[in-house]
Each structure stands twice: as structure tokens, then as C-alpha cells.
Amino acid sequence: xxxxxxxxxxxxxxxxxxxxxxxxxxxxxxxxxxxxxxxxxxxxxxxxxxxxxxxxxxxxxxxxxxxxxxxxxxxxxxxxxxxxxxxxxxxxxxxxxxxxxxxxxxxxxxxxxxxxxxxxxxxxxxxxxxxxxxxxxxxxxxxxxxxxxxxxxxxxxxxxxxxxxxxxxxxxxxxxxxxxxxxxxxxxxxxxxx
Length: 194
Hints:
By secondary structure, this protein is of the alpha/beta class.
């Protein structure tokens, strides 16, 4: 059975969440920044098979080098031209994370290389910084940010996920394990305002 742990839990620094997903294929979804990710992975006693990035903002990738050095893993992400990415994940690709296959959704708006990863069978979504709990959504005032593209990406996500979605793991803040579809719908409404 897939287990998802936020190894950045309790860290008080400029970091994203970093999810260690244990199962048939143990994967770290985002590496976080400015904390000892290697020590926290080792403490979980799981090992590591791969590192998958939702996007390449510094708070999500600061620990990539240390994790790659410690575990000799490849890094997967949308942009194969980015210096940290070894292998490309394209929109519509399937990525094995934990015990489940996840559909990769290219979801720009917060950043051009942003991906969400959705497992219909597992009922799990890794949403990165596209949407958050309580209708929050990724900021669009940074380089590559585009509110119109973000709204389109949230709509794309809504077209893809279904009522079987049980848990949404986001780049910042708490995971959503009660009615995550509602939180995505709320984000779609919120992103259209202002």
C-alpha cells in the first residue's frame, strides 16, 4: 500500500512540501529547500528510486543536488533542458509513483514547466503549486506566471480528476484528504476573480 509522507513537515524555512511516496517504486515528489532532506529520507528507511519535480522554482528544487548525490537517483520533470532534469515527463505520460501509475498533466500558469500527477486508481493527486486547500491557487506574479494560463490549467485538472479523488498533496500547506474535488472547484472560482 502506498504511503505518502511530507518530509518537509515542521521545517521553518523557505521550502515547499516534499512528499516521500513509498510503495513498489519509492519516489520523492519535489525535494524542498533549505533542510536536510537526505537525513529525513534515511530516517524513513525506505531508500529512493526516483525524484519527480512538479516544477523548478527554488523552493521545490533546492535539495535536489544533495538527494541525487546521496541516493544516485535520476530526476524527472517537464523541461529536459533544465539543468536539474535528467528525463522529460510530457503531458499525458504515465509515471509510476508508489504503488500506482500517475497521469502527468502539464499545468502552466504558475510556472511554464509545472506538472500535476494524478492516479485515478490510487485516488491521489500531487498538485504542486497549481491549487491548494480552501481554494488557494498558485501565484502568477513571478516570472512565467500567467493568470489566464493558470485558470486554463485548473480547468484541465477539473476535466481530468473525478469523484474517486481521495487525497490532494499540495506544494504548500496541508494536504486535502476530505473532498479534494471541492477545493479544486473553489480554486477555479477564486482564480477567475480579481
